[in-house]
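> forwarded from #structure-qc
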């Protein structure tokens, strides 16, 4: 399972929360924390692959090119990818980088789910509407899109259920 999403969206935190570990994957409030590709073995069943985020403004031009290349490269090694977990911030519309990433994902034809993170930052009564808004801006009607909050550790059950169905 490959985690894609812009820098600081919460990919590393997602790994920690979903596995109930505190510092399994290193997270940070400084964007660009994850600089390497890290594999986390989950019960010998699959790996969470925590990737460096894109759209990190302090990235040099070279780093941006490298990150663009690794994304394409990884999506081509498709036999190793059982699921793409695409993280977005529930508060914002997808950025142009997000849309580019989303386009890569669609073209890869690999299974994916969209996770809208940081749901704790908005009122719980607004979660459904914001998820719908993001769904509309992505233009998807067929794929799974779920809210999440690493901070509050909510909605993890629904996401595990989805992951379990896909890996079975
Ligand atoms: P890169 O490694 O730079 O690509 O970032 P990342 O996507 O791995 O983000 P990371 O998990 O390091 O989290 C970035 C910041 O967002 C940290 O300060 C986290 O504590 C915070 N964060 C992550 N998830 C949530 C969430 O659900 N709610 C809130 N409020 N903060 C979150
Ligand atoms: Mg990270």
């Amino acid at each position: 399972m490959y985690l894609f999403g812009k820098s600081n969206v919460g990919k590393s935190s997602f790994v920690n929360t979903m596995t109930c570990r505190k510092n399994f994957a290193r997270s940070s409030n400084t964007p660009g924390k994850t600089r390497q590709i890290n594999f986390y073995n989950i019960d010998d069943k699959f790996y969470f692959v925590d990737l460096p985020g894109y759209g990190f403004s302090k990235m040099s031009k070279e780093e941006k090119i490298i990150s663009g290349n690794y994304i394409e490269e990884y999506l081509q090694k498709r036999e190793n990818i059982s699921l793409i977990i695409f993280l977005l911030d529930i508060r914002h519309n997808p950025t142009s980088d997000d849309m580019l990433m989303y386009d890569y994902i669609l073209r890869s034809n690999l299974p994916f789910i969209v996770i809208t993170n940081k749901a704790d930052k908005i009122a719980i009564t607004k979660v459904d509407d914001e998820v719908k808004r993001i769904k509309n801006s992505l233009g998807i009607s067929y794929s799974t899109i779920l809210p999440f909050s690493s901070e509050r550790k909510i909605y993890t059950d629904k996401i595990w259920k989805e992951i379990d169905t896909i890996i079975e």
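QC bot note: The chain has one domain: 9-167. Residues 11-12, 27, 33-34, 50 surround magnesium ion (ligand 2) (CB under 6 Å).
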